Amino acid sequence: MVELRFLGSMSTPGVSAKKKTVTAATMTDAVKIFARHDHRYPTGWKLRKDGPYLPVEIIFNILLYVPAKVLHEVARYVCKQWYDIVSDPDFITTHCRMSSSNSFLIQHSDQLHKASHIEPHILMGTLVLHETPVEIPFCGAVVCCFNGLLVLLSGLRNADEEIKYDVFYVVNPVTKVIISLPHLTDSRHVTEVINLAVDSSGHYKVVHVSGKTAYFEQVKMRVFTIGVDKAWRFIDLRGIPAIAGERNLMLFHSFCFGGFMYWFTYYTSYDISPFGFALEVDTEIIYPLSIPKDVIKTQCPISINMGTCPGLVTEQDDIWRVWKLTDVKSSEWTELTRINMRRVYSQINNKLGPIYFLDIRPFRLFNGHLWLRCLRGGDNYVVVHYDLTRERFKDFRIKKLFNHALHPYANTLVSPKN
């Protein structure tokens, strides 16, 4: 690698001899002079060929702020040193952790060959939602996202143009890694919930929960460890009250944080106990989760994603009470904050006008940013991103939202051990 390193004083016009400040114009002049046939360069510049100037630790930290797609397609080909850094498992893990944000992925029910990545940005003091396409290698339904990995259910069309699903795949849209999972012969035409997590050894586990009815009267739970298992393994659910009853476990109510997978019920009555359950990824032990003791039965809890842990929201006197799960095994919750629902609704109505919503529900709260999913009918939604600190919001409409799901997502370089 060839570098120009400033070693002394500059004699190039435009540079103060006292301050020795290298301006952008000076750098341009230096490059132009060096590009001449006689390879002359200004006084004070020396051509280096003996390796990189910056320490590897600094380059490591700089590359952490480069988008995953640029790292994979451009940066790793700059030199061997950069290739080694980008390929380092510690770098990939750190980059993945730093990439987690308020962004999410959506997919339209009539466009299962692609998806969209929605990211909020503050531009000139204004909240802007940036949408970029996510490449999917084949027609498939996104049923789960974790650490930049997608779990896809491949779609095949029959003579009547109806989509028939076949095999599950784990895909990284950035690195183009595709891993097929063993076929499930008895899981078609039933309610399914999929989740993905990583254990302490770095192996990724896919958990499949299925039932014969929409309310999971007869539930089966299977797990497959990528790179370890040859087939799906059943998990014993006997004695687990959270699954034994009629509880509707919705796809957008599954989370994974801190070594646990979480599933929560979509409330069907005011008396819900337990409210959900957690699966410890390493031990594969299940823990029932109850609602906070301070929540009365007349309050319908709604599970939300809080970025680093699951949470729930209860409604009381036009106030949203936000709770954070602090201990899984004892099912302990702590009240985190309260949000004035009337103020939020008023701002939404003033901005959007008299739009009738069948349902308005929070689904994510992270770093003072609240996401609301507003159902207009069918599978058409208005999604609202509300900044609780600035009391500003941005809305956008989604037509034909597949499976009513908005998956937390960020581009990463993660590839499961296979």
Low-pLDDT sequence parts: 1-42
Q: Which range does the strand content fall in? A: 35-45%
For the largest sheet, list the strands in their spatial order: 5-4-3-26
Question: Which structural class matches the secondary elements?
Answer: mainly beta
Rounded to the nearest angstrom, the distance between the terminal CA atoms is 35 Å
Task: Give a short account of the largest sheet.
Answer: 4 strands, antiparallel
Mean pLDDT over the residues: 74
Helix content: 10-25%
Count of strand segments: 26
Shape: globular
Rg to the nearest angstrom? Answer: 26 Å
Count up the helices: 7
What does this structure look like?
With 418 residues, the chain is mainly beta. Helices cover 14% and strands 41% of the residues. It is built from 7 helices and 26 strands. It has helices at residues 24-34, 56-63, 68-73, 80-87, 89-99, 241-244, 341-352; strands spanning 3-6, 45-48, 104-106, 114-123, 126-135, 140-146, 149-157, 163-172, 177-180, 191-198, 204-211, 219-225, 233-234, 249-257, 260-265, 276-280, 286-289, 302-305, 310-316, 319-327, 332-340, 359-366, 369-377, 380-387, 392-398, 407-408. Strand 22 (359-366) and strand 23 form a beta hairpin. The longest helix has 12 residues, at 341-352. Mean pLDDT is 74; it is low at 1-42. It comes from Saponaria officinalis. InterPro entries: F-box-assoc_dom_typ3 (IPR013187), F-box-assoc_interact_dom (IPR017451), F-box-like_dom_sf (IPR036047), F-box_dom (IPR001810), SCF_F-box_component (IPR050796). Residues 54-95 form the F-box domain. This is F-box domain-containing protein.
